[in-house]
Write a structure and sequence with these properties.
425 residues, 4-stranded antiparallel beta sheet, alpha/beta, TIM Barrel
């Protein structure tokens, strides 16, 4: 099977020739730039700086030579702009705090304060307040809350302020998507694209770090309060937002057609380590109608499968996700409460695809032994792989400073499960 055939078979809940492997398909299934640099060195690939394709989390690009070395089955189809609103249309040198030389988007701009914190700016414009900060000694940027005072008693609270970031997709963005299609046709891998603007109340996006002067409800605490106290406002917001998404979907489909297999729809996290941010009833009333509208359009007009990212303990919400038309759940955080892998596979495995869940990235992969990593990967594959409906990836991204030997042990364990030879150095 080709990578595309393998992934499509798994998505259809059929048994592929081996478990499909994804690294770099989207911003929630990828790897920190420092680990990618170590992988390139391990496989003696061409010596060149790794491109940081998402500065927010400092995640790096998987070039074709590394994908081939790892045997991945998925190509990503990223959008033109990063989380800080900088275009991926050119590159410049950048030195990480540990001395690693990388490439960042040419518009990416930072300053350093006296305490050693690194600040970055929306659209690279240092004349406006910073929208992200990497604390001294850190590895990722945190969004800076820049909410202006809200009107008293919500008088004059404007829907347009929280709709500012939801716009019609531009010709430049569509051309950027089209420019990536020939390489995917040559690779034979499954293609994983993103539906822009479809995440309803995605708490990572609420502060809008790509906008220079965000207005409306931008504070995270205020947003969660709004789900209870401003629900009618959110209904109107989600309704307008999804109408914009549907218009953009038509344009994207005209460009990429059926070359794309998976559509990343939503990254809104509803789960914590031990519970959920909202009840199943709140999800069904506030979110489900709008996700269903987006997913129905995709299913009625394309062959794409729809992808829902949601961390945490979400067993009580999975029925709602399925009813919303989601085909895939990620990152399958079985380390959270009430997320036993066998239970997940038994109750939901014939109705939703598990994309992730391969190994714990909070403890085992960064801090365990290679033997512990191998054992955990094999257990996950034994549970999730039978009958298809499983694409191997870690439980969210591989973090900075994860030991290379553990990453190799993880990849070799997948090969072992698949009956393949271990990776050659």
């Amino acid at each position: 099977m080709t990578g595309r055939e393998r992934v499509r078979t798994a998505l259809d809940h059929k048994q592929p020739d081996r478990v499909p492997l994804d690294f770099g398909g989207c911003n929630q299934t990828t790897v920190h730039v420092g680990v990618i640099a170590k992988l390139r060195e391990h496989f003696a690939l061409a010596k060149r700086p790794v491109q940081v394709v998402e500065p927010y989390t400092m995640m790096g690009r998987f070039d074709e030579d590394l994908k081939a070395a790892l045997g991945t089955d998925v190509d990503g189809l990223p959008g033109l702009y990063t989380f800080f609103g900088v275009a991926l249309d050119g590159w410049k040198d950048y030195t990480m705090e540990d001395g690693l030389q990388v490439l960042v988007p040419k518009g990416f701009a930072v300053t350093r304060d006296a305490a050693g914190n690194i600040h970055t700016y929306p659209q690279g414009d240092t004349s406006v307040p910073a929208s992200g900060v990497m604390p001294k000694g850190g590895y990722y940027f945190d969004a800076i809350i820049r909410q202006e005072p809200l009107p008293a008693n919500d008088a004059g609270l404007r829907l347009e302020d929280n709709l500012e970031e939801f716009t019609d997709i531009t010709r430049a963005e569509l051309d950027f998507l089209a420019s990536q299609l020939p390489a995917n046709r040559r690779s034979g891998r499954s293609l994983f694209g993103v539906v822009p603007g479809a995440g309803l109340g995605d708490i990572a996006c609420v502060p809008a770090p790509w906008l220079k002067h965000p207005k409306g409800i931008r504070d995270i605490t205020e947003w969660y309060i709004s789900t209870a106290t401003r629900r009618e406002f959110l209904h109107r917001l989600f309704d307008r937002q999804t109408d914009i998404v549907l218009g953009n979907l038509q344009k994207i489909h005209q460009v990429v057609g059926e070359a794309m297999d998976v559509a990343w729809v939503c990254g809104t996290d509803f789960g914590t380590q031990s519970s959920t941010f909202c009840s199943p009833q709140t999800y069904a009333e506030l979110y489900q109608p709008y996700y269903l509208k987006v997913n129905n359009w995709i299913h009625n007009h394309t062959k794409w499968k729809t992808f829902k990212h949601c961390c945490g303990s979400i067993t009580t919400l999975l029925e709602g996700f399925i009813a919303s038309g989601f085909d895939i759940i990620n990152p399958v955080q079985w380390t959270a409460a009430n997320m036993d892998p066998g239970m997940l596979k038994g109750r939901f495995g014939d109705r939703i695809v598990f994309w992730g869940g391969g190994v714990d990235t909070q403890k085992t992969l960064p801090f365990g032994t290679a033997a512990q990593v191998r054992a955990e990967v094999l257990r996950a594959c034994e549970v999730f792989a039978p009958g298809g409906g499983f694409v191997f990836n870690t439980i969210h991204n591989i973090q900075a400073r994860t030991p290379l030997e553990n990453v190799i042990a993880m990849l070799d364990a997948v090969k072992e499960f698949n009956g393949q030879a271990k990776l050659a150095k």
